[in-house]
Every structure is written in C-alpha cells, then in structure tokens.
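Worked problem 6 (solution included).
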Amino acid sequence: MARLKFATVWLGGCSGCHMSFLDLDEWLFDLARVADVVYSPVVDTKEYPEGVDVCLVEGAVANEDNLEMIHKIRQRTRVVVAFGDCAVTGNVTAMRNPLGGAEPVLKRAYLDPANLRPQVPREPGVVPPLLDRVLPLHEAVPVDFFLPGCPPPAARIKAFLQELFAGKAPQLAGANLKFG
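Solution. The predicted structure is:
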C-alpha cells in the first residue's frame, strides 16, 4: 500500500486542535507507519506541497494570508477536513464579525490603547490584512469532512483518521463518532 501524504495546518485559531492531535501520544507512531507528515506546524516545511492526500485544517479564515493558504490547500489536497470548531463554524475567531469589519478591530487593538505614536501596522509582512468577516472553511472552499470540537478530543481524532485512512467515510453524529 502506498504511503499517504498527510498534512495539518493552523489558520486563525488558538492551536488547541493541534495540542489535542499531539495528545494522540503513542498512536502517532502508528500514524507514521502509514503516512508521511508532509506539512504541519510541527514539521519544518515552508511550502505547502502538491499531491497531499489528507489535510486537517485548524482555525477559521481570518486574514488574506489565511485565504490564500486555504485556496492553495484545496487545490493541492484530495481530502480537506475542517478540524475543530473554528474551522467548522468560525467559533471564537469569528467573535469579531459583529463589530462591522476589520477597521474597528484594528482601531481597538492598535490605536485606542496607544500612548506613543498610535498607528496600525500596514507594512507588508508585519500583520496580514484582516478580512472584514472571519469565515469558517466551507465558506471559502469546499470541505470534505467536518471534525468538530473545541478542541476535538484525541480519541475522536484517532477514530476519524483510522476510518479515513482505511478508505471509509467517517460519519459524525452527536458527541461521538458513529461508524456504519
């Protein structure tokens, strides 16, 4: 059997989903037997590769860099998984949406509390331009599976990946995974 090309990505979120993924502990050795981790915050790879089989995407699409990245992921990945509640619904990351766009957020973060030379950093490469509205993944690109939780527990991640890597379509129902 050919080895799977597996990736994880962290967009606008807190990294809690990746912490839960690392809670897979010894099962990560089992994962390494069937898949190569070709891109992840825990791997020193700078460019998202072509031909990825499965990618878990944590976080919402909150800025222009996130939007560019999710489009690249979708183009280069066979199965895209919205990983955790921020990716699935926007969750905490989208709490700024009712504020009416990026400018009120930037003003509150950079101008209101400033004592000396208040300014919003606008130099390219300093702060990626915020989108006016934070998007869950499925509003930016087609998503193949949704793995909810804040964060999803390690047991749910393991069960989901075992089914997916076995060529089955994982079914999510209620608080637990249900497999047919």
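Discussion: The radius of gyration is 18 Å.
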